[in-house]
Amino acid sequence: MKVKICGITDVITGIAAVQYGADAIGLVFAESKRRVSVEKAKEIIQRLPKAVYKVGVFVNETKEEIERIASLVGLTHIQLHGDETADFCRSLSLPVIKAISFQGNDSLKICTNLASEFILLDSPKGKYRGGNGTVFNWLDVDLNLLGHKKVILAGGLNNENVEQAIKIIKPYMVDVSSGVETNGIKDLTKIKSFIEIVKGSKKGGN
After folding, report:
1. 204 belongs to a structural domain
2. What values do phi and psi take at 24, rounded to 5?
3. How does pLDDT run across 35-63, given as a tens digit for each residue?
4. Which pTM does this prediction carry?
5. Domain span holding position 189
6. Rounded Cα gap, residues 99 and 127, in angstroms
């Protein structure tokens, strides 16, 4: 089971997360309290191993700006949290992770039209398009509608509920941000525990 730690804003946390076993690091370039500058993102990415996914998170950004940032900082994947179309996803030069806010199974019908290999299944929108720390009912998800996509599960995951989430959804990867924070700041102890729980999950697959 793979783990993505999203909303990384400094080098020390990024390095520690990878040392603890994170497979992907998320850097937010959209409106968020975890938004990172291009310069800081580049600094973080330069210190990460090649094999780790370096995911840039964008919301309704222009193709030109996404490509510019991706090239400057060294992203490997682009995560789209806005109203981007299937054609827009196909137009980008890097693999796309398209986020879908789960508001019933009708919201999953978009999956069949998306060329992206990855779908990020998130809770309904809050103040921001992601990272709001809220959980949705995993039992309501019709997994058949997700097709053969690699599902990344997000939305209010933490050390207490991630095992149950994995058992129900059986995702390719789990994605956490606020669930490994204390007072809005990434907590290295929580990150380490979260990764250990996920990697040790007997239901988690490989």
Report:
1. no
2. -145, 145
3. 999 999 999 999 999 999 999 999 999 99
4. 0.92
5. 2-199
6. 16
CA distances from 90 to 7, 86, 148 (A): 25, 6, 17
The Cα 44–Cα 64 span in angstroms is 22
Q: Classify 4 as helix, strand or coil.
A: strand
CA Rg value for the chain: 16
- DSSP notation for 51-90: TSEEEEEESS--HHHHHHHHHHHT-SEEEE-SS--HHHHH
Going along the chain, which residue ranges are E strands?
2-5, 24-28, 53-58, 77-80, 96-101, 118-122, 150-153, 173-176, 181-182, 185-186
Query: Phi/psi class of residue 205: alpha, beta or left (left: φ > 0; alpha: ψ in -120 to 50)?
Result: left
List, by residue number, the catalytic residues: 6, 122
At 40, which CATH number? 3.20.20.70
